[in-house]
Amino acid sequence: MRQFDLIFTQISLKLQLNIINATGSPMLSDCLKKNVKLYLLQEVLTEIKTILINLIYYTDKVEGLSYKVDRVLQLVLIFVQKKMIHQLKFVESNLNYSSSEAKWLLKNLETEDGELIKWAFEQLFVSIVDNQTLDLKHQMLIVSILETLILKLTDILTYLLLIELKSNRRIVENTIDVDTLFINAQKNNLYWNSYIKTNFLKPKSIYSGIYNLKIFTGNGFCNKLVYFPMLKLKEKKYLSTLQFIVLIYLEGIDFLYPKIQWTLKKVSTKFVSLL
Fold it and tell me: Range of 188's domain?
């Protein structure tokens, strides 16, 4: 339990350093006022920790966590929003978590990072229930996965808030006009980015074993590439037809390119010798 607490304390302290987006990719939470953004990030972190503790103590086997990831993500959003109603007086309306958009956003997050999240949850489960000490490499990876999850859940929460609070200007920066055009633009960006990540970047990550995570640093939120090939076999089981085609294409290129290069070199050498 001590190591579990240490992981979440470490993330909380890192949040106090800098919450500027330095990833090079836009995030929905960028439009929030700094105090609101920090509040959401901290509350998402707190709720993940609280729900995980309860889940761990009420789950008999580590395998049980694998089937509860989607529920954990939904509960985090629900509990954070309830806190906002009580603590941020200008947030009054309940968010519609049963809407098609909310379900799609959560499902999309699970599709993108589900296996990574499951692995991190399982490692935390084992560290508490079996009283095992995580090695430093795994601990650092768990921290990075949780930080990525916090940022993505905060973005989902931000989007749902913007939809419900179109006329409310107190949660966004004064320079940003939250109108229907702005909401639709953010929605289009979400769908487009999701399509690219799910169908093309996801198979690339599975093939290479390299995952792009977003972490908290003194310079703000930054990208971090991690090599994690052990998920390859698990994630292959859940590929869609398009994802599978992209994966086969990448594997085919990797297999054929050296042979084509070698053949061209031989032909070129033979041609030169004939001259």
Answer: 2-239
